[in-house]
């Protein structure tokens, strides 16, 4: 039997450690993604880390370090196709880039585990979780920095929360106020937020808008028209 010839206890236990490490670290990364309801969640990140570890470990067992390096190169390029599947374009918005990057990092974690670099796999897992959690407040803060005086073109969105039954009239009201100050509207999206609430996002054509102008519009919507939540955000194009 071929199995009897190829089975060796210590290399097998080494493989068990690599698989277990990839499973645990991939689960930690995936749990954070699942908590935030991302497209690629717990199982996807775990399987990516585990699969990467399996391929790298197999190459190392059969051909040594040189063969495992070659397989890692294929893992790096191959995971790009999987990551492309979670990137979606919705109108002028592109979603899923961070999720795709996290999948790429999960593959790196699995590759480290498959190469028996367990400490490095654990360190990378910690850094990935740090990037996806600790940097979030910093990103939100940067997005709120006024863009007046900058030459960077951006896409601006004005967002309001309203009752589902009032979505149509309030959406028209927001568009009317924006067009009244010569801001061209590109699209309007309505997203459910609970059983009877919706978020209305009105996206402008890419331009450079003074922050004070958008602040004045959102303040007017909140104070004069009694809209419970009105805000805006900017997304740069570079």
UniProtKB/TrEMBL annotation:
Q: Where is the MgtC-like C-terminal domain?
A: 156-232
Transmembrane regions listed in the UniProt entry: 12-30, 42-59, 71-88
For this protein, the record's InterPro entries field holds: MgtC-like_C, MgtC/SapB/SrpB/YhiD_fam, MgtC_SapB_SrpB_YhiD_N
List localization entries: Cell inner membrane; Cell membrane
Give the keywords, sorted: Cell inner membrane, Cell membrane, Membrane, Transmembrane, Transmembrane helix
Assigned protein family: Belongs to the MgtC/SapB family.
Q: What does the UniProt function comment say about this protein?
A: Virulence factor required for growth in low Mg(2+) medium and for intramacrophage survival. May be involved in regulating membrane potential by activating Na(+)/K(+)-ATPase.
Any idea what this protein is called? Protein MgtC
Native source organism of the sequence: Sphingomonas aurantiaca
